[in-house]
Predict the 3D structure of the following.
Amino acid sequence: MSTYTTGELAKHVGVSVRTIQYYDQRGLLTPMTTAGGRREYTAQDIERLQLILVLKSMGLKLAAIKDILNSPNATDVLQLLLTEQVQRLRQDQAATTTQLKTVIAVQKALAVSGPFPLESIHDMDQLMTNQQRLRQVHGKLIIGGLVMDAIEVAGLVYAWLTGNWWVFGGVMLFACGVAGWLTYHYFQAVRYRCPNCHTVFQPRFKQAFWAGHHLRTRKLTCPACGKTTYCVEVAASREQA
């Protein structure tokens, strides 16, 4: 069985030695240790490291990756996550191709016949604005959170300068209300796909709110098969939202 040193593994996969050492410290990699204290890795470690890098490129945190890899049905969860990622990349690729064709068509038409009517330009713009609904949901949630953070800080500064802490209390109550509304809106805009039976479902608000979760996964009980596992987040259709 071929083995690799830390430097050889780093060179083979294309990362730094420090990255390998950090993943060792976080428990993501478990190398063998020789009698002389040298760490050695196998071909399985190469595959695991490549998988870690793919999941990290999808936006998952290392703690989430470790939980998923150590879960009892890790293969099912990973298969579903990777399938969803392939679909997203294909959608992005299709959207880019469509946008490119549209831009080229507009460029050629403008060169021949001059400007389009305003309505046509609007239609073209609508066609080119083809973004993933899930990213839109996350974007709105992030923006809403940042706005509320700014309001809370402003309220705190005002209360500190004036000594009127009732204002800050009111701001915090308002912030809690908005946070609740954002959370409700978020759970209305997303669904979850079970990695065991592939059913797409909407959990009860209470179940979803208190469930353990990572970026793009949430530990839920599937209503179809009854299995509790990390389910993958997907966007609700326009009819469902």
About this structure: Confidence is low (pLDDT under 50) at residues 115-131. The longest strand covers residues 228-235. Residues 78-235 form one domain. The CA atoms of residues 5 and 36 lie 13 Å apart.
